[in-house]
Design a protein that fits this description.
Oligomer: single chain
Radius of gyration: 19 Å
Structural class: alpha/beta
Helix content: 25-40%
Order of helices and strands: HHEHEHEHEHEHHEHHEE
Largest sheet: 8 strands, mixed
CATH superfamily: Vaccinia Virus protein VP39
CATH architecture: 3-Layer(aba) Sandwich
Length: 282
């Protein structure tokens, strides 16, 4: 994600996105096992903090004493602290891929959530291993991921162009492995099992994000792009090429000028059934 776009990202949060998070989290929280025990919850990739405070926190039972909300970008954490503070929420800069961070928090959390933040990570085995390590025995993990979409195909094509290739050598690190999978649910269940998780609930659904016109869609592409900040000049040209290729690979413009972005969304609820701490080299 573009690290300088925290306020824009907050403004561009889509109704379809918010409704999906509300629906999935509500369903998963109801399916989770809760007791009178005090819980500490982890929110991975909290971004601007609006989902953490306005959706996740109200869904949690009173037995949740604290939500630790992490994001890799300090700009997002600063925005969250200033705009979505709450006495039960502690915002911290952190990267779920960081094994050093994980080692300090072994078995600290009983529940973990993540919505639309794991889209930009290719190594989901590492993510699942780290979440396993962070969760206590029997801990549960609810997550929502953009599995496939035109933007991934656009990045793949941009990375082959002579103009943008120098800034996108690591492009594969910023898409999901599901981009290449044929049977997303089956393959994710297999991966999760190897990482000590049983998938209790899983769904891959088609969802279309709508934008009133090209300008809003280009702003969205600029905000979510992990590459814009690496380009010293002609950032506008990069977004224009991304926009053009998204239209080539499945996004489309309606007669009224609005833009539709079709995506496949993976949502799942997993339970830790095996401790990997003695099996994984940290």
């Amino acid at each position: 994600m573009n690290p300088h776009e925290a306020s824009t990202y907050s403004q561009l949060k889509l109704d379809e996105q918010i409704k999906l998070i509300q629906r999935v989290y509500s369903s998963h929280v109801n399916k989770m096992t809760w007791t009178d025990t005090e819980y500490v919850v982890l929110d991975i990739g909290c971004a601007t903090g609006d989902v953490t405070k306005d959706i996740l926190l109200p869904l949690c039972p009173d037995s949740v004493s604290e939500i630790i909300a992490i994001d890799i970008l300090p700009e997002m954490i600063n925005f969250a602290e200033n705009h979505y503070p709450h006495q039960k929420i502690r915002y911290k800069t952190g990267d779920i891929k960081d094994r050093a961070l994980v080692l300090k928090q072994k078995s600290k959390f009983q529940k973990t959530f993540s919505s639309f933040s794991l889209n930009m990570i290719f190594d989901h085995q590492l993510v699942l291993q780290n979440v396993n390590y962070l969760l206590s025995p029997g801990g549960e993990f609810s997550f929502i991921i953009v599995a496939t979409g035109p933007q991934y195909k656009a990045y793949e094509e941009l990375a082959r162009s002579t103009t943008w290739e120098p800034y996108m050598k690591d492009w594969k690190n910023f898409i999901t492995p599901m981009h290449y999978w044929q049977e997303i649910e089956t393959e994710y269940k297999t991966l999760a099992s190897k990482c000590g998780f049983a998938i209790n609930d899983i769904s891959v659904e088609s969802l279309t994000f709508g934008f009133p016109g090209p300008s809003k869609f280009k702003s969205f592409l600029n905000t979510i792009s992990p590459f814009v900040s690496k380009i010293p000049d002609d950032k506008t040209g990069f977004i224009e090429d991304t926009y053009r290729l998204c239209l080539k690979h499945g996004a489309y413009q309606n007669p009224d000028g609005s833009i539709q972005l079709p995506l496949k969304i993976l949502s799942a609820l997993a339970t830790k059934f095996m401790d990997l701490s003695d099996r994984v080299s940290f």
